[in-house]
Amino acid sequence: MEQQQLPQYIPVLMLLGVAVSFAFGTLVFSVIAGNFAAKRGIRTKTKDIPYECGMLPVGEANSRLSVKFYLVAMLFILFDIEVIFMFPWAVVYREMLANPATRDMIFGSMVSFLAILLVGYIYAVKKGAFNWKH
């Protein structure tokens, strides 16, 4: 039995070898191309400034953002994931309507999921997570 399973891993090992050789090959190629293309040691002030779409950079590169920015970003991710979970449910819901036993179960599970997220949304509104003024 073990004799028959070993050949099944050969394509996986080949893919692993190709992936590792590609990774190291691109690193080696970038070093070689960089050595041929650029003159080492010649650095100017213009080359050392950060590139910002052709415009001269204004202000400091490491500006601090408010915690509210990160909080709103996390809430966006949370509600974006909610939509991602609702799409497969909507696709399967039509098929599940044919069976009365699963119809109530799938509808109830989505209503409970939305209720939990609604409680989280109300909590965020009450805490002022969406208020940028303070």
The low-pLDDT segments are none
- Content of β-strand: under 5%
| Envelope shape | flat
Q: Classify the helix fraction into a percent range.
A: over 70%
Mean pLDDT: 82
The run of helices and strands is: HHHHH
Per DSSP, the total helix count is 5
Domain module tally: 2
Radius of gyration: 27 Å
How far is the first residue's CA from the last residue's CA?
A: 68 Å
Largest sheet: none
Helix vs. strand class: mainly alpha
Determine the oligomeric state from the structure.
Answer: single chain
Q: How many extended strands?
A: 0
Write up what this structure looks like.
The protein is flat and about 75 Å long. It contains five helices and no strands. The model has no long low-confidence stretch (mean pLDDT 82). The protein has two domains: 2-48; 67-127. The N and C termini lie far apart (68 Å). It is an all-alpha fold. It has helices at residues 2-5, 10-37, 45-48, 67-96, 100-127. Helices cover 70% and strands 0% of the residues.
Fold blueprint:
Blueprint: H1 2-5, H2 10-37, H3 45-48, H4 67-96, H5 100-127
Helix pairs in contact: 4-5
Question: Can you tag this structure with a few keywords?
Answer:
134 residues, mainly alpha
Question: What would you say about this model in short?
Answer:
With 134 residues, the protein is an all-alpha fold. The chain has two domains: 2-48; 67-127.
